[in-house]
Amino acid sequence: MGKGKGKNKPNDDRPSKSKHRGANGHHIRQNNKHMEIKQYGHSKSKQLFPVKLAMWDFDHCDPKRCSGKKLERLGLITSLKVGQRFQGIVISPNGKSVVCPNDRSIVEKYGASVVECSWARLDEIPFNKIGGKHERLLPYLVAANQVNYGRPWRLNCVEAIAACFAIIGRMDWASDLLSHFSWGLGFLELNNELLQIYQNCTDSESVKKAEEEWLLKLKEENQKRKQEVQNTDIWMMGNVNRKMNSLNISDEEEEEDDRFESISKPVKYDNLGNIIEERECEVEEEEEKEREEEWEIKYDSLGNIVTS
Ligand SMILES: C[S@@+](CC[C@H](N)C(=O)[O-])C[C@H]1O[C@@H](n2cnc3c(N)ncnc32)[C@H](O)[C@@H]1O
């Protein structure tokens, strides 16, 4: 496990008691935390958000960049121990169905929770000892945080909770929570259209269907762009019968071509935002090459077309 001091860190990794503690017996950092809460004019015992927010913190992340830790410093979220269950919605990579508007009553009554850990270390999380009855994945949404900006599915903790609130139709809670982060409200702007679509769904299946339709639309737009880029390439190349390597292309222009290539390649993600190798795409390229070879016109020494 990494450095830090979350509730779910093994004991031998914890710093020794004595010198890092302040006058009230709390850690110096905890004292800072109390100061931060005091700035807001609240005490820790009082719930500062309209519903309960909780997290299992595995201390994998840099505390300065960790949105869960910031929510904790603000007194908005409480930490849970391994072995503790949560009654509300548990937004988790271990979920089987997605958050949906029908979850609203559960969230309003029991709140929402997340698993504060590193995306790269999910295999270290004892998912059988945390969670609850209502574990959920989030449908396709794009991160706006500074670490994973533009990346689908990989939201940080505050984005994940805000996304859950937005989907169940509590945009007020979503923006309240995100307003504590400089980039926060950008998350709602970036995903505005899609969030509205999810809000108009009912159960998990209908959200899943809306997600699939959205992804299909993205794929089609991508293919259209790819086609446009190919057409532009042909237009810019002039005589398409001339072989590429006989053209006098400068390094700069070649770089330009590479960029078009990467833009035009469709990228597919799995549920956790990992890029899936596009087999389909490779097969398409192979077929395209074969077709090109098939269509290449060959001439004999007298200029007659040779059919192969
Ligand atoms: C892996 S942690 C990373 C936290 C990050 N270090 C931060 O600063 O907040 C993000 C957590 O948000 C929730 N989450 C984010 N995106 C999710 C998704 N697409 N499906 C399910 N849970 C998600 C999960 O609880 C996940 O463990």
TrEMBL record:
Family assignment from sequence similarity: Belongs to the TDD superfamily. TSR3 family.
Protein name from the UniProt record: 18S rRNA aminocarboxypropyltransferase
Ranges for domain RNase L inhibitor RLI-like possible metal-binding: 51-85
GO MF term (any one): rRNA small subunit aminocarboxypropyltransferase activity
Lineage, broadest ranks: Eukaryota, Fungi, Dikarya, Ascomycota, Saccharomycotina
Protein's UniProt keywords contain Cytoplasm: yes
Biased composition annotated in UniProt, kind: Basic residues: 17-32
InterPro entries registered for this protein in UniProt: RNaseL-inhib-like_metal-bd_dom, Tsr3-like, Tsr3_C
Keyword Membrane: no
Subcellular location: Cytoplasm; Nucleus
BP GO annotations: enzyme-directed rRNA pseudouridine synthesis; maturation of SSU-rRNA
